[in-house]
Amino acid sequence: MNALLSLAHNAPKAELHLHIEGSFEPELMFEIAQRNGVKLPFSSVEEIRAAYDFANLQEFLDIYYQGMSVLLHEQDFYDLTMAYLRRAHNDNVIHTEIFFDPQGHTERGVAFADAIGGIARALDDGRKNMGISSRLIMCFLRHLSEDDAHATLEEAKPFLPLIDGVGLDSSELGHPPAKFKNVFAKARDLGLHLVAHAGEEGPPAYVWEALDILKVQRIDHGNRALEDEKLVKRLADEGMCLTVCPLSNLKLCVIDNMRNHPIPAMLAAGLKPCVNADDPSYFGGYVNDNFTALIDALPLTRADIEALLRNSFDGSFMSDSEKAAALTKLDAYLAGV
Ligand code: HPA
Ligand code: ZN
Questions:
Q1: Which atom of ligand 1 is nearest to the CA of 169?
Q2: What value does the CA radius of gyration of the chain take, rounded to a whole number of Å?
Q3: What does the pLDDT average to over 181-210?
Q4: What is the per-residue pLDDT for 1?
Q5: What gap in Å lies between CA 83 and CA 80, rounded to an integer?
Q6: Phi and psi at residue 151, in whole multiples of 5°?
Q7: Considering its fold, how many domains does the chain have in total?
Q8: Looking at 200, 209, 238, 322, which residue is catalytic?
Q9: 41 lies in which domain range?
Q10: Ligand 1 centroid – CA 105 distance (Å)
């Protein structure tokens, strides 16, 4: 194997942009659909995979919400999360910060407690049995109203010890960050971390709003920030982490070819991207597959790969001591290869 590929694959790393519902592999989807007596509009795993051919974010989201609709019980959410943790462990992920979309479940009548309970129980087992530390980020669906997001935050209150932050996902165009100004302020008052998807399909103005109006601590994606020089300077000056998702960008036609992925330009501009899977079951792979796609297509150097790995810990919500320990682990690994 190419030396850079094996360096990236074997390195300890953090994953900071992973929708747990987007890690739902078709095999498990069929298994859970069967045990819940739910009928999927597909007759085989092959048929499902063949449907994963998207021209944009919305085409993906339509099928993503359909897929998650077979999740009904606490055990379903546990199994989903545990399957992801096994794949992450295999890719040497030692820390993960995962998103979940409670509104995608509660609007179908699933109890908030069952969704978060299953996810949190698996994260706890992942920590005990695989040594993977984690944080849980509750995303608001931006195509719904801010009132709906407020109601979701209220519903989350009994579970706040399990929740580390809030995020913003779903259909970006037409739903600017400013729409969620008040609910993000409330989440900040509750001591939650703040992140938002911005600049995936939306313009640089949405990234400005995420920074200035929502006061986020990370930008999820951020690709289109590169169109605005002042914004690039702002992100670089603040050392803002961008949770970038190469295979997602390709599958959702945010880029036309991996050779045109903006990661090299981001690194050259002094930004802090890290590499993530986003929705691995839908986009063609987990975090190491994303490193493979980048390394195969682009003239990345060893220093670039090291920076991407460091940024994954630097940009995380680990405590200072956890972060220092993870970076020491990474440095020890890099010194030996
Ligand atoms: N973008 C926006 N919303 C999402 C995504 C994404 O890539 N994945 C799941 N929800
Ligand atoms: Zn995402």
A1: 3
A2: 19
A3: 99
A4: 67
A5: 5
A6: -65, -35
A7: 1
A8: 200
A9: 3-335
A10: 16
